[in-house]
Specification:
alpha/beta; Rossmann fold; six-stranded mixed β-sheet; five-stranded mixed β-sheet; 5 helices; 23% strand
Length: 346
């Protein structure tokens, strides 16, 4: 399945049904009163977050969605049928914007969450509604209200507990493949990863979701390389794993390059907790390893973990460090509710 994280969709809710002008006609009843029914309500356009989806590819092939119109009212006080709603299924983490791409209409973060983006028109009143003591035989009814139509933009931001960031070829995909059942493409050239990948990681009987995004290079926030559009997928992460390639000329410079791009992107990425790790330790001599670790420690102002995704050395320590930060942030987000002591009613 192809990955698509943005889509433009035209939606239209259903029109309300027209009210009916009708009079009671029966044998031996000379002056049957008005009995025209009301029109039915038009269908709504609803977006729902569902499980098992992680792409918006369905909306590349069908981009127009219209709910059913309400049925017209009928004689004998019969109400028109309400129009069927149309439900668009999207992955959890989808944001719904107006056509300008800036006005947020809904943010569907949880599976099962729903948002009505276009409400159906109300049905018109039949002539029975206008009957009064002074107007015994009204001969008019209301038309149904038109539905709403608008173009919306869907933007997917994957929901993961931790996200891997780093320069191209830092070993991000190799790390994801080593710790999860995900099978990202791995090769010895930059930008092998073109789309975000998700993997479920298990450590010490616990599980969390890890996201791998395409590499960042200097100037990514200005569109260089693949740009920084994929950084949206780590916006919701609780912690970042910053992988630095130990085989580059200067690990500290590589670290600062990515940090500068995170800060330029904004959205709080620069302030997110991060775990810094020096990767490809198996390809370094002890002297090189010591030198690169010291450079990275000076740049990051914290002691980096040393890891080799290819051999698995140091990988469990990195996962435990990520899990510790995830637990801390979950604890901070959980509201502290103090239960009131129970007392018998006096």
């Amino acid at each position: 399945m192809k990955f698509l994280d943005e889509a433009k969709v035209y939606v239209r809710s259903g029109d309300g049904g027209n009210g009916c002008v009708s009079f009671r006609r029966e044998k031996f009843i000379e002056f049957g009163g008005p009995n025209g029914g009301d029109g039915g309500k038009g269908g709504d356009v609803i977006l729902q977050a569902v499980d098992g989806l992680n792409t918006l590819i369905d909306y590349r092939y069908q981009q127009h969605f219209k709910a059913k119109n309400g049925g017209g009212g009928m004689g004998k006080d019969r109400h028109g049928a309400n129009g069927d709603d149309i439900v668009l299924k999207v992955p959890a983490g989808t944001q719904v914007y107006e056509e300008d791409g800036e006005t947020l209409l809904a943010d569907l973060t949880d599976v099962g969450q729903r948002a009505v983006v276009a409400r159906g028109g109300k049905g018109g009143f039949g002539n029975a509604h206008f009957k009064s003591s002074t107007n015994r035989a009204p001969r008019h009814a209301n038309p149904g209200q038109p539905g709403e139509e608008l173009t919306i933009r869907l933007r997917l931001k994957l929901i993961a507990d931790a996200g891997i960031v780093g320069l191209p070829n830092a070993g991000k995909s190799t790390f994801l493949a080593a710790v999860s059942a995900a099978k990202p493409k791995i090769a010895d050239y930059p930008f092998t990863t073109l789309h975000p990948q998700l993997g479920v990681v298990e450590i010490d009987g616990r599980e969390f979701v890890l996201a791998d995004i395409p590499g960042l290079i200097e100037g990514a926030h200005e569109g260089t390389g693949l740009g920084d559009r994929f950084l949206g997928h780590v916006e919701r992460c609780r912690v970042l794993l910053h992988l630095v390639d130990g085989t580059v000329e200067h690990a500290g410079v590589a670290y600062k390059t990515v940090r500068a791009e995170l800060k330029a992107y904004g959205q709080g990425l620069g302030e997110k907790p991060e775990v810094v790790a020096l990767n490809k330790a198996d390809a370094l001599t002890p002297e090189q390893l010591k030198r690169q670790t010291a450079r990275l420690e000076r740049a990051a102002k914290k002691t980096p973990l040393v890891v080799s995704a290819a051999t698995g050395a140091g990988v469990p320590d990195v996962l435990r460090a990520l899990l510790r930060v995830i637990d801390q942030t979950r604890h901070q987000e959980r509201p502290s509710i103090v239960a009131k002591a129970w007392h018998p009613q006096g």
